[in-house]
Each structure stands twice: as structure tokens, then as C-alpha cells.
Amino acid sequence: MIQRIHGRHAFSTLSRDGRRIRRSSLWCSWCPQPSSNATRVAYSIGRACGPAVTRNRLRRRLREIVRHLDQREPLPPGLLLIGAKPTATELTFDQLRTEIEQLLRAATSTPTSS
């Protein structure tokens, strides 16, 4: 089950304890939370990616990809922040899905230090 990230505490936890993974057009910060029962996701798409219409379209595409991947194989519980670089707006839906799959695989398979 995917939920949205709300509140300053979750974002400070991500910046302090999260593991950051980068790809050519996307990046993510992942912070596992075994005591939780859901994955909480937020998206960071800055103005450098284009006007609001372009940023919102990219956010909707990313959200749909994550939702589909979670239905196929549930994501582990934790906090996930997905960000985009300006080059992400040039990618097709399939290219975005491939990058997200690589990010999630790298983030959730590597243990973080506690």
C-alpha cells in the first residue's frame, strides 16, 4: 500500500537517514521503516524541469509507474522520495519505468547503516 509523505519529520528523517541513489535522469532517497505497514512516497520535481504543466505531467507518470510496480510486487515499508533532473522530461514512459525499477532495486536491496 502506497501513501503520501506528510510533515517535516518524515522529510528530515529522509535527509538524515535516507540512502540516496542516482541515475541519469532520476534520483531517490530511501529510508526503510520495518515497523510501518506501508510505503510512503513523495516526489521532488524542480522548476528546472520546465513549466508547471510539464512538471505535473512528469509527476503523474512517475506516480503511475510506482503504483503499477507496487501492484506487481509490493514495495517494502519505508519512506521514498523520488526526484527528477531536467532530462527526465525527455524520457518516454518505458524509459522512466526502467529508471524507476533500477532505482527501487538499488535502494531496497542494499542495507543501510543504522
Strand content: 15-25%
Shape label = globular
Give the low-pLDDT segments. none
CATH topology: Ribosomal Protein S5, domain 2
Number of strands: 5
Enumerate how many helices there are, as a single number. 3
The Rg value, from CA coordinates, equals 13 Å
Task: Give the integer mean of the pLDDT values.
Answer: 91
CATH class: Alpha Beta
CATH architecture descriptor = 2-Layer Sandwich
> Spatial order of the strands in the main sheet?
1-4-5-3-2
Helix share of residues? 40-55%
How many distinct folded domains?
A: 1
Major sheet size, sense and barrel closure: 5 strands, mixed
Provide the structure class.
alpha/beta
Would you list the SSEs in sequence order as H and E? EHEEEHEH
